[in-house]
Amino acid sequence: MDYTDEVKRLWRHHDLGSGDARYPAIIRYATMAASSHNTQPWQFRRESGRVWILPDLSRRCPAVDPDDHHLYASLGCALENLLQAGRAAGLEGYPEYDPSTTGVKVDFEEAAPVRTDLFEAIPERQCSRVEFDGEPLTEKETELLTQAGTGDGVSVLLIDNDEQKEQIARYVAEGNRAQFADDAWADELKSWIRFSALEAARNRDGLYGPVMGSPSVPRWLGLLAMKFGFSAKAQNRKDFRNIRSSSAIAVLYSEHDDRRHWIEAGRCYERLALQAAALGLRSAFINQPVEVPAIRPEFARFLGIGERRPDLVVRIGHGPETPRSLRRPVEQVLA
């Protein structure tokens, strides 16, 4: 299985089909969404005129995500892609959070097909862990990104002030120091890194080494390199450069700290990232300040959002395309 060929097959538009064949097609688009560590912690269940998006708790990351916040945000990312692909296929979706399953029920009805700019951008969206060029956002770009990142009980702050970006970098650095000092966090991250193209193609999940800026190497060599070069200090140098080079930092935050709003925050992130891609912009997570519980309240006070929970932090700017991760096939994610 050639990794490069698999990437080319995945990251492109696919035939949406007709009739019932549209449902596996739009689920395929849903699997192209973002997820923490590319864990893809979702299952999809089909019923007549309906798709369920359910949490796959076997793919939890308890060290970095002890309350499953990122897991449920990932369901929201998949939901947004599903809805955008549904519209393109002539299926208008109506999502509803279901407390009994902690998943989302989406009922579809026939509608005129509409291929939105966000749908067209699905194969272009990626998490770009590289320096951007620092070019400021235009007023129109800022308006469209703010609109995309706003949802039901979820708001977005777009921060482009250099002094505030520097403060965010300091929070990221503080988060790095806390996480790198946690052996459980480090072991969990290593378990989701796919160091070689062969390993990445076999698993079709996790973080492919070159996506993170490392060469494709055998697992034993990758682990050895991490043993000697994996440090908060090195990561902080990289993160400061990346943040300073960004046009803006987007922070999504919720009115209520519960699973329904976590899912909505993920949906808003995915819409924001798709809008950025449609505008020719790149994006990347810098979630350390919201992942460390001891830092998160102080970060919220800095943002001026009171007791609200900051959900996700994203760099945005102009930059190059970077290597891409794979996704599991539809048949592996059907419940």
UniProtKB/TrEMBL annotation:
Coiled coil: none
InterPro entries: Nitroreductase-like, Nitroreductase/BluB
Alphabetical list of PANTHER family matching this protein: NAD(P)H NITROREDUCTASE RV3131-RELATED, NADPH NITROREDUCTASE
Protein name per UniProt: Nitroreductase family protein
GO molecular function: oxidoreductase activity
NCBIfam families: Rv3131_FMN_oxido
Top-level taxon in the UniProt lineage: Bacteria
